[in-house]
Design a protein that fits this description.
It is built from 26 helices and 22 strands. It has 753 residues and is α/β, with parallel strands linked by helices. The C terminus is likely disordered. The structure holds phosphoenolpyruvate (PEP) and magnesium ion.
């Protein structure tokens, strides 16, 4: 069954849309299992009915018309059980209810498999046989594999309005929250579109000029291929070089160029016309039984990509951006963001990346919501679509239902009112009604953020992520470059403290010029592990920090990703030696306070040992949560399991705070948890000395601090520590916020879906 499955997977992935894919699926399954009928039912979001979407074997014209109530018949039974149902004689089953429209009484053998995506039943794939037939285990396994393949495609089509006949619009694509906020706008797919499947449909403004553009791109690629072939002549044996000739020949062929030009003349812009021609041929090649010819399909894709890249570089015409532009792409660069005219950028969607990628950092600095890691978003089919972006929950609603838009419009209005109210808190102290102060600071990573931080009323920078200047360069920055950057930041904040974290690359933060290939990067060479192994990087950065601090004296140094106490000893050794070295050079440097990040469970358990070595501790809850719960913080698939209110997280954070204080060391929190009003209430109860967060979160947290006495927060903490599930903690905290009149701090105010 492997070969039919492989073909089917290809069909689903290369089909233009789901309505094209489903008939292919039922056709192939029917052939592979040699059954009399194969059908796909999909659940209607609105009514919950199972709608027949595609069939081969049931009477023609049933599609879209056969609708089964929830739980009705064997299809309903399969959906209810969420497990395959395999019956030799369907008629003998108590749930059997033949659908007269579909003439089902003619069938006896039945194999129904649920189409499930992350626990949600999206539909049912059913095979039916006229005679009695019990399907064997490998046939059942085949159907399960097909259903799994379909599930991903259906989910993404549903979330983008791709299934016109089934009620849609309240579904969302889950990504990873990259920058907070809510946006309602129109999607613009950004360049470059390196993948054919991502090219959006668009009309040609001037078909004649567009065709010329296409032909000259083809010519350029032909030249490029020839010269590649020549260049390889000394390196590759003759047979392998012939690949380049095959490519050039394929491009010469009338089958590729002429149909594309026809499509352009019919009104399509060149990239989409080219995409359609290439994909048509790719599909034809992939259907072939001959192995050699099938591999030609990948050659075709390669050519397709080359011409596309050539087209893009020829056609860099200025783009028009909608008024509330939500920029979407596989990757979005700083230049892409810069191209959107001021005031028009409403949000950012990225199919790759994480909360730490440049795009997310920039979006936060620009104050626009961003959702990252949207692998399920079919970028090529959503250009110009209306969209709602929920940057708090990392959700995207493409072509949203009116109900969703209304809900988010209300949310936006509430946010504006709230922001206006919170501005008044700016100059008031972060002190509880019973007189306990908590230092509220901001996390920044860009020089541009600093102003936002100052405007929010922050008492300093609790975490300056130093990675960004490294990420945007083509080589490691020099001591002078870093010095200028750090001096700027320290000067802007002085005399308020600035906690600068030493370089924390690795994990998902890679540098283009410092490749690290690892199977498990989050458990690999990261943060202090790199800087201790590469002392020249560490030394340069420390020299720049210490020199920048000479005139201001407000620097504090923070060590990331510590998992062994000896790492702290070694790092402090390097810092002390660097201080001595600079003094020897006659520079008046001072030894800054050195803190340790507690973001690995082992570090949390060794709090006392770390506290003895450090001047302060800073809990990095973003990583601590991921390592404690074994949940990748950037994986949208497990985003629902990543929860800062998990009792194990609360107990660990509380342990670190109490242990730190027992040894007389200040303890702060600099992960996102500090910026969430509900979690901040618990941190207040724990007695943390400082909380550092995104500037936009600071006024909300200040409001919490000013509204709850320490004793009240402590009582809530004790109650929360006795609970076993995160949702119970959340209910407790939300009730407390509401009782205190802070109900509108609960984000999102209400889930629209
Ligand atoms: C953290 O892990 O909580 C943290 C603040 O660091 P980063 O998010 O940069 O990993
Ligand atoms: Mg971290």
């Amino acid at each position: 069954m492997l070969e039919p499955l492989r073909r089917l997977v290809q069909d689903v992935s290369t089909a233009e849309n789901l309505e094209e894919a489903l008939p292919l699926v039922v056709h192939q399954v029917r052939g592979a299992l040699d059954v009399d009928a194969c059908s796909v039912f999909l659940r209607d979001d609105g009514s919950g009915e199972m709608v027949l979407m595609a069939t081969e074997g049931l009477p023609p014209g049933c599609e879209g018309r056969v609708r089964l109530a929830p739980g009705e018949g064997l299809v309903g039974f399969v959906a209810e059980r969420k497990e395959p149902v395999n019956l030799e004689n369907a008629g003998a089953h108590p749930r059997y209810l033949p659908c007269p429209q579909a003439c089902e009484e003619r069938f006896h053998g039945f194999l129904g498999v649920p189409i499930v995506h992350y626990r949600e039943v999206l539909g049912v794939l059913a095979a039916q046989q006229r005679g009695h037939r019990l399907f064997n285990p490998s046939e059942a396994a085949f159907m399960v594999a097909v259903a799994a393949q379909l599930a991903g495609a259906i989910r993404s089509a549903r979330s983008t309005g791709g299934i016109a006949r089934v009620g849609v619009g309240t579904s969302f694509v889950q990504g990873v929250a990259g920058a907070p906020g809510v946006a309602i706008g129109t999607i613009t797919v950004s360049h470059p579109l390196a993948r054919l499947s991502d090219v959006p449909d668009r009309p040609a403004k001037d078909p004649h000029a567009e065709a010329e553009l296409f032909l000259s791109a083809v010519e350029r690629v032909q030249d490029e291929l020839r010269s590649l072939g020549d260049r390889m002549s000394t390196l590759l044996p003759r047979e392998e070089r012939s690949l380049f000739d095959v490519f050039a020949l394929l491009l010469d062929s009338k089958q590729l160029v002429q149909p594309t030009v026809r499509r352009i003349r019919a009104g399509s812009w060149a990239p989409a016309a080219w995409r359609d021609t290439v994909m048509e041929h790719v599909r034809a090649f992939e259907q072939m039984n001959d192995e050699y010819l099938r591999t030609r399909a990948s050659d075709l894709r390669d050519i397709g990509r080359r011409v596309l890249v050539a087209l893009q570089s020829e056609a860099r015409e200025p783009r028009r951006y909608p008024e509330h532009c939500v920029l979407a792409g596989e990757e979005i660069t700083a230049a892409d963001l810069a191209e959107v005219p001021a005031g028009q950028l409403a949000g950012v969607l990225c199919s790759r990346g994480s909360v730490l990628s440049h795009t997310a950092i920039l979006a936060r600095a620009l104050g626009v919501p961003a959702v990252m890691g949207l692998g399920d978003l079919p970028i090529g089919r959503i250009d110009g679509a209306p969209v709602v972006v929920d940057g708090y929950q990392g959700r995207v609603y493409v072509r949203p239902h009116r109900r969703v838009v209304v809900e988010f419009e209300r949310l936006l209005r509430d946010e504006e009112v709230l922001a206006a109210g919170l501005r008044e808190l700016r100059d008031l102290p972060a002190r509880t009604p019973d007189g306990h102060s908590v230092e509220l600071q901001v996390n920044t990573g860009l020089v541009a953020d600093i102003q936002l931080g100052l405007e929010s009323g922050a008492e300093g920078v609790g975490l300056y992520r130093t990675e960004f200047p490294y990420m945007i360069r083509h080589a490691f920055p020099s001591e002078e470059e870093l010095f200028r950057n750090y001096r700027h930041v320290l000067a802007a904040l002085a005399p308020k403290p600035v906690v600068m974290r030493t370089l924390d690359v690795g994990g998902d933060k890679t540098l283009p010029y410092f490749a690290i290939e690892e199977d498990n990067p989050f458990l690999g060479w990261r943060g202090i592990r790199i800087t201790l192994d590469q002392p020249e990087i560490f030394h340069t950065q420390l020299r720049a920090m210490l020199r920048a601090n000479i005139s201001f004296g407000n620097l504090q140094v923070l060590l990331p990703m510590v998992s062994h106490v000896r790492e702290v000893d070694e790092a402090i050794g390097v810092i002390d030696r660097t201080v001595a070295e600079l003094r020897d050079e006659g520079r008046a440097v001072t030894r800054p306070p050195v803190g340790v990040m507690v973001e690995v469970p082992a570090a949390a358990l060794q709090t006392a040992a770390l506290a003895r070595r450090a001047d302060f501790l800073s809990i990095g809850t973003n990583d601590l949560i991921q390592y404690l719960l074994a949940v990748d913080r950037n994986n949208a698939r497990v985003a629902a399991l990543y929860d800062g209110l998990h009792p194990a997280v609360l107990q660990t954070v509380n342990w670190v705070v109490q242990e730190g204080h027992r040894t007389g060391t200040r303890v702060g929190v600099c992960g996102e948890m500090a910026g969430d009003p509900a979690s901040a209430l618990l941190l207040l109860g724990m007695g943390v000395d400082s909380m550092s967060m995104a500037a936009s979160s600071l006024p909300r947290v200040k409001w919490v601090v000013r509204s709850f006495t320490r004793d009240h927060a402590r009582d809530l903490l004790q109650e929360a520590l006795g609970l076993e599930e995160a949702f119970a903690v959340r209910l407790l905290l939300h009730a407390a916020l509401k009782d205190a009149g802070l109900g509108n701090l609960i984000r999102p105010l209400k889930s629209a879906a």
